[in-house]
């Protein structure tokens, strides 16, 4: 909300080894094999290329990346084998100690949004690309990765969509190979063109409407923006201009914060996810707010104020009795 890096050409090739000894070659998004990504046509073609640039014409920085890729290919298989062994040992120890490590990879693959009993929609609005510097654009995508991970591991995933997914946000996401296969609805259009207007609710801390429960047929919009408070009220103003519903999470109902209620994209999503799983808002917010944020229960503060008033009244009465 706001409760509230660069070119996709920097994507690491999967294989840069000159050898033809690898019988099992993966295929890129464009249908090219690993050798074709490096050589520019086939395993025997010359001259060879790296990310579309001829090897002999690479800059010092590109050459450094190229050598790094070659080195990675040498150690990748060994590293992956060690990781699998560690994971296996970890699961064995967890089973012996009755520790739940969460769903396995096989189970995760079965947890699809279309099969989820939860039909609450969450949309991340990525129409703010032009308002962010490259560093903040990268942070936005990283927060979306955390959102995806949380949703994928949920027993009942929410219906997650990215809208206005084009331009810089799409370029930044392209650095994460295989994202196209993720269980997310990627939409290049604005959310107003994807969902019925009456189903939309834009989340904004500036809204006067407090959300007390989530509705199954609604789509809750989170502003995909990392702006460090440079654009206060931008999501709220957008909702008002478009004439769609808006609301804020009930943080003030339970907590006093010593600063403006601006949460990260993934924090807002995880609060919604916990509530969709049956947690009350208070417990969901408390579990997600970072420990560094000073928070006090609003009810406790009210009780303290009442106690102070009672003490004051009693003192006044004592003074009167004394006089």
Give a verbal description of the structure.
- With 323 residues, the chain is α/β, with parallel strands linked by helices.
- Helices cover 42% and strands 11% of the residues.
- It is built from eleven helices and ten strands.
- A six-stranded parallel beta sheet has the order 5-4-3-7-6-8, with helices on both faces. A two-stranded antiparallel sheet has the order 1-2.
- The protein is globular.
What's a quick, concise take on this entry?
Residues 4-46 and 309-323 have low confidence and may be disordered. This protein has 323 residues and is an alpha/beta fold. Strand 3, helix 4 (134-152) and strand 4 (159-163) form a beta-alpha-beta unit.
What is the SS-derived class?
alpha/beta
Give the H and E element order: HEEHHEHEHEHEEHEHEHHEH
Largest sheet, strands/sense/barrel: 6 strands, parallel
- Spatial strand arrangement across the major sheet: 5-4-3-7-6-8
Q: In DSSP terms, counting alpha (H) and pi (I) runs of 4 or more, how many helices?
A: 11
Q: Which range does the strand content fall in?
A: 5-15%
Question: What Rg is obtained from the alpha carbons, in whole angstroms?
Answer: 26 Å
The total of beta strands comes to 10
Mean pLDDT: 77
Uncertain residue segments: 4-46, 309-323
- Tell me the span between the first and last alpha carbons: 58 Å
Q: What is the global morphology?
A: globular
Helix content: 40-55%
């Amino acid at each position: 909300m706001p409760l509230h890096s660069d070119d996709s050409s920097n994507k690491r090739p999967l294989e840069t080894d000159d050898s033809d000894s690898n019988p099992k070659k993966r295929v890129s998004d464009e249908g090219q094999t690993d050798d074709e990504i490096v050589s520019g046509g086939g395993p025997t073609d010359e001259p060879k290329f790296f990310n579309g640039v001829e090897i002999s014409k690479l800059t010092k920085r590109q050459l450094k990346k190229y050598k790094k890729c070659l080195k990675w290919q040498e150690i990748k298989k060994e590293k992956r084998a060690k990781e699998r062994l560690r994971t296996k040992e970890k699961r064995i120890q967890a089973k012996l100690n009755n520790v739940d490590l969460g769903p396995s990879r096989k189970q995760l693959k079965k947890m699809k949004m279309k099969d989820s009993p939860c039909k609450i929609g969450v949309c991340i609005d990525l129409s703010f690309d032009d308002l962010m510097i490259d560093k903040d654009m990268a942070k936005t995508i990283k927060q979306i990765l955390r959102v995806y991970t949380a949703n994928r591991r949920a027993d009942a995933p929410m219906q997650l969509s990215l809208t206005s997914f084009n331009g810089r946000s799409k370029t930044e996401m392209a650095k994460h190979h295989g994202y196209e296969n993720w269980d997310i609805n990627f939409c290049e259009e604005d959310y107003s063109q994807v969902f019925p207007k009456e189903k939309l609710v834009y989340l904004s801390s500036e809204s006067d409407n407090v959300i007390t429960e989530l509705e199954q047929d609604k789509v809750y919009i989170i502003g995909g923006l990392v702006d460090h408070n440079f654009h206060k009220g931008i999501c709220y103003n957008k909702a008002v201009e478009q004439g769609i519903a808006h609301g804020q999470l009930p943080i003030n109902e339970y907590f006093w914060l010593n600063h403006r209620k601006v949460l990260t994209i993934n924090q807002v999503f995880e609060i919604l996810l916990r509530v969709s799983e049956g947690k009350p808002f208070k417990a969901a917010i408390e579990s997600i707010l970072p420990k560094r944020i000073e928070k006090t229960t609003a009810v406790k503060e009210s009780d303290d104020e009442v106690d102070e008033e009672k003490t004051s009244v009693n003192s006044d009465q004592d003074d009167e009795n004394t006089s």
